Amino acid sequence: MVAAGRSTNSKRINEYSTRSAEDTVELGKRIGAHLLPNDVIALTGRLGAGKTTLIQGMAEGIGVRDYVTSPTFIIINEYQGRIPFFHVDLYRLNNVDEIEDLGIEEYFSRGGACVIEWAEKLGELKPKASHEIEIEIISETKRKICVSSELAARLK
Amino acid sequence: MDCKSITSYNHIVMTTILAIETSCDETSAAVVKNGNEILSNIVATQVEFHKKYGGIVPEIASRKHIEVINPIIAEALEKAKVKLKDLGAVAVTYGPGLVGSLIVGLCAAKAIAYSLDLPLIGVNHLEGHIYANFLISNLKFQISFPFICLLVSGGHTMLILVKDHGNYQVLGQTRDDAAGEAFDKVARFLKLGYPGGPIIDKLAKEGDPKAVAFTRPMLGQGYDFSFSGIKTAVVNYSNKTQGTATHLDFARRCPELAEGFSRRFLANLAASFQQAIVDVLVEKSIQAAQEYKCKTIALAGGVSANSLLRKDLKEKAEAKGFGVQIPSLHLCTDNAAMVGCAGYYHLKQKRTSDFKLQAVASLKLVGYNVTL
Fold it and tell me: Within the 248-267 window of chain B, which residues sit less than 8 Å (CB to CB) from chain A?
């Protein structure tokens, strides 16, 4: 399902519905296949929404062969696919100062695609050009996945 | 004390190693004699700093490491009654972990080794955890090769076949979240507090582990683990029990979740969740020991503190004829003595590091003795 036209934070979005984790992985793969160097993807969604699942698909789509494990413990995991893939998890961080001190912005322009979990914590550090993906829980298995339109346009 | 020189490189190496570990939230320094005797093992835990943040905050970790590293090293030497001139080598964790934290320990180790003209030994943190099983204070029996090591912590969940010193084969690891991370995230979701492991462990004692039938993820599917799904299952279950058909307004209601539940409900949930995780860890460890003909299963990492894991692993593995070794608690959690022990075996094989040694955040566990 694609329903364009809604607007959040002045960015237009496209909505996708997924009916299972496998569905979410497939969408992730499609997104991953279209990611370009220096893309920053701000990913939001509650605990258990399926952020890991979507990112595992994205990594696969980008050509990463390793397991994509949670970076909660070390904050940033780096992988190599057709372009580098940086997986950042801000779950443990509390405010912009802490994020700034970690030097996370460096990853935004290192020639890879950078996906950031709990991106709402980025505040003013979020690059203006970043893409946005928000996962909403509809039911135990269904998810609504909102993708900002510039990224969604590549998927068509 | 006659430890300054390394008297033999052959069978027994007589040396005293200063070890430093700063891979995550603990700053630790230890002095280890001849690879197995702990002369001192000082750990400055930062858990108090982290509690209010509901997790480990790297920036804080790194800053605190800098503040306490020198006093901790001084204390380790003093308690061991060892002077710098008595040391034979300096061992240090160089990964995996938080780069900012690792660098603090690495710089201190390099400075000491360089100024005293001592060998520098870079140690993999995961290897350190395995070597907690070789430290004298917790040896119930001499562990013999090969053995299975179940390494479970906040950042790692791994089954390792340890064939010999420096010869490891990672049989399986988590594909998403570490076991300890699942504990932390579930505890935080249920608003139980931090660190999640001990809180859930305690609460689970009041609950019925059969109350909620969580799937045992990845059982019967090799040696890899997956704990992200069970975290989602806890979220779904809590949410359903809240009595709502739709999850649309989930985000708004979530903050009040824990308060809406009875202690009994939470205890049952904690007990069921914990049992599901422990069942998978225990079952796979026993399977691995059977398949690879090991006599012993050794536990390592902070989740070893979990009372159900200790009890179930002991009961179930011993019932099948396997020995179970669990290092004492202070050696299971991050500490420098285990790094000193692992470093000793590197030194024994003349494996020392260059002063260009860098911190590696995602360092993999690879053996160095695979040809032997």
Answer: 248, 250-251, 254
Q: What is the mean pLDDT of chain B?
A: 86
Please give the residue range of the domain that contains residue B82. Answer: 3-135+331-353
B265 and B201 within one domain: yes
Nearest Cα to Cα of residue B202 among B304, B274, B152, B150 = B274
Same domain for B180 and B303: yes
Number of domains, chain B: 2
What is the domain range of residue A6? 2-154
Same domain, B259 and B286: yes
pLDDT in tens, B317-356: 999 999 999 988 889 999 999 999 999 999 998 899 999 9
How many domains, in total, are found in chain A?
1
Element housing B123 (H / E): strand B120-124
Dihedral Cα A100, A102, A104, A109, nearest 10 deg: 100
Position B260 pLDDT exceeds 50: yes
- The DSSP 8-state label assigned to residue B213 in this structure reads -
For residues B26 and B46, the answer to whether their CB atoms sit within 8 Å is yes
Q: Is A22 in CB contact (< 8 Å) with chain B?
A: no
Q: Which residue of B has its CA nearest to A144?
A: B248
Question: Which CATH number is A130's domain given?
Answer: 3.40.50.300
Domain of residue B103, CATH code:
3.30.420.40
Nearest CA in chain A to B362: A77
Look up the ipTM and state it. 0.77
Q: Can you read off the two tokens belonging to residue B217?
A: 């993820």
Least Cα separation, residue A94 to chain B (angstroms)? 7
Question: What pLDDT is stored for residue B245 in this prediction?
Answer: 32
pLDDT score for B242 = 60
CA-based angle B54:B56:B62, to the nearest 5? 145
The total number of residues written for chain A in this structure: 156
Assess if residue B96 is contained within a domain: yes
Number of other residues whose CB lies within 10 A of the CB of residue B113: 23
Residue B335 falls inside a structural domain = yes
By CA distance, what is A101's nearest residue in B? B59
Task: Kindly state whether A136 is in contact with chain B, defined as any CB-CB distance less than 8 angstroms.
Answer: yes
Q: Contact at 8 Å (CB) between B301 and B129?
A: yes
CB neighbour class for B133 (10 Å; exposed up to 12, middle 13-18, buried from 19): buried
Q: Is A130 helix (H, G, I), strand (E, B) or coil?
A: coil
Residues B191 and B314 in one domain: yes
